[in-house]
Amino acid sequence: MHVVITGSTRGIGLGLAKEFLRRGHDVVVSSRGADAVAATVAALQAEFPGRRVLGQACDVADYGQVQALWKAAVDGLGDVDIWVNNAGRDGTKLPFFMLPPDDYVKTIETNLVGLFHCNRVAIPAMYKQRKGMIWNMEGFGSNGAVRPTIAPYGATKYALRYFTKAMIRELGKTPPVQVGYLSPGIVITELLVPPPDKRGERWEQSKKILNILADTVETVTPWLVEGMLKNHGRHGAAVRWLTPAKVQGRFLMNLFRKRDVFGPLGI
Q1: Contacts with 22 (C-beta within 8 Å, 6 or more apart), sequence order
Q2: Which among 153, 158, 162, 181 is annotated as catalytic?
Q3: Catalytic site includes residue 153
Q4: What global pTM score does this model have?
Q5: Rounded Cα–Cα distance for residues 241 and 243 (Å)
Q6: DSSP string of the chain, one letter each residue
Q7: Which CATH fold would you assign to the domain 2-195+215-242?
Q8: Rounded CA gap, 155 and 112, in Å?
Q9: 10-residue mean pLDDT series, the chain (267 residues)
Q10: Cα–Cα distances in Å, from 112 out to 55, 61, 208?
């Protein structure tokens, strides 16, 4: 299969790219930085010499750049079977009334406007090629959960679930194009871990919960890719790592055995 992943030069996106390549599929990686894209393509080509790895710089908040990303994928691979909307921004973690307007606008432009642009480009193009599936990446707030200091991010992810549900209904029950939900749970990436100079008592408290619920990219991405492949073509499918039952099980397990997901990472 031919796979496009937005925001895939690091973190979960890069992990997804590696897992698709490991399973014999071809991938287009992207992010806003051209240098990061070029470096990622070179590294992946070296690691997976038998596969095709392409790259295209793309700010998903720019509709023209999203169009260029689709064109680069089709020009290089012929078509697109899977498009993963992974690009995201969490913004500065402060009470909303203290945020600079530019900060929350950027979060909305990436997480929501970018999501709209990618679906708007990919859906008609996939109809034209008569196949394809889009996966929209959920995050904290998608299920209505609320946490202080991340109001813009959580609001965009809550909207993402509504939008995805609307796309599923609009496209009908048996479309040539399918849309699904993808949820990685809580993953240890640079979006989650503050820089050393900003870690304090609040971070140490957060680590206690994260050691119960969080996982590494290497743990989550193989499961997500396997889920996407197993559910390919299933309109409205949901591939979610951290289910309510798993959360309950993690807290129960914590009574008997403590996890330390940060130790191996040196955090």
Answers
A1: 48
A2: 153
A3: yes
A4: 0.92
A5: 6
A6: -EEEESS-SSHHHHHHHHHHHHTT-EEEE--S-HHHHHHHHHHHHHH-TTS-EEE----TTSHHHHHHHHHHHHHHHSS-SEEEE--------S-GGGS-HHHHHHHHIIIIIHHHHHHHHHHHHHHHHT--EEEEE--TTTTS---TT-HHHHHHHHHHHHHHHHHHHHH-SS-SSEEEEEE--SB-STTTSPPGGG--HHHHHHHHHHHHH-B-HHHHHHHHHHHHHHTTT-TT-EEESS-HHHHHHHHHHHTT----SSGGGT-
A7: Rossmann fold (3.40.50)
A8: 9
A9: 97 97 98 97 97 98 98 98 96 93 97 98 97 97 91 97 97 92 89 71 78 90 98 96 90 87 70
A10: 23, 8, 31
